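During the reporting period the student researcher (J.K.) took over the structure-prediction task from the postdoctoral fellow and processed the backlog of single-chain submissions. One of the processed entries is reproduced below for the supervisory committee.
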Amino acid sequence: MRILLDNFTKSFGSLTVIDKMDLEIHDGEMIALLGGSGCGKSTTLFSICGIHKINGGRILFGDKDVTNVTSQERNVGVVFQSFALYPHMTVEQNIGFPLKLRKETASEIKRKVDEIAEMVHIEELLKRRPGELSGGQQQRVALARALIRRPDVLLLDEPLANLDATLRLEMRSEIRRIQQETGITAVLVTHDQVEAMSMCDRIAIMDAGRIVQIAEPKEMYNNPVSDYVAGFLGSPPIAFLNGQIQDGNFVEPNAGTKFPVSATIASSQAGRSVRVGIRPEYFQPDVGTMISGKVSFIEAQGRETLYNVTLPDGNILRSIQGSHSPVKIGDAVTWGVNTDHMLVFDKNGLRI
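J.K. obtained the following structure tokens:
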């Protein structure tokens, strides 16, 4: 089911949270609305499902205008952060409840519950109550309840926020598997860029009620339109240095750090203030343009190790390395920046 937000506006009293947003979500894709608190992503989700009545524009499901259609009539499935299961009901009753409201027969409800329980791998839990389940099991029940009504759209509001790290990893792959198996159009609201990049076909990054970029995860990571987007994607995060373009180089004025830039940037930005972004995978020993500093932080992450290197001017570059270097905190190092992958932004934060 294709979803179209056309000139979508949402206000709360005198405060306009979303102003004339346009967004098309393709049939069968999973898209992430990603952004910090207060950016408007949950407001957008609640408007799609009909919980919020919009103040301007249209919402279309396929070719049908559902702007003034009630939430119950939109045929959407919603999974909330809190799971919102009925504690007095069994898992089987929780999952089948939407069909009971539709007045389907008991035999038909049982058949559909068994079918969806098998899909989300909770067949053995049907007689238990929510209080007897782990967080991951409760999340699977909530997902099954949302899917059993065969919704046109699946909406996921921070669905993994209450799970521990191991369960989040498991449920990321499970939700994606189920979405792809059913072919349902899905919208994920999250502030976690790892969730967005691993689960979704496209990401829409939001800031202050507007979409600042929408693209496939890899494309957005490699070609962010602004330093805001670049800073939102990547773990460990990108490091930024401020300076000017002088004689074909980026120059950081306090320590005199220099990195070569492309001929296009050198000519178009000569004498101008810019900001460069350097991702941890492109700051490595014995590669690129060398820069010296002191190791100020080391974090072993299993297969990889993260290093923070503090430069003479106090700026910090991060390096993520597959093998553990024989360095200690406080050691002086001279490592290199691969300037071919250095991102350059103008004084307003826009990509050059």
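The committee noted the following: The mean pLDDT is 93.
J.K. will present the remaining backlog at the next meeting.
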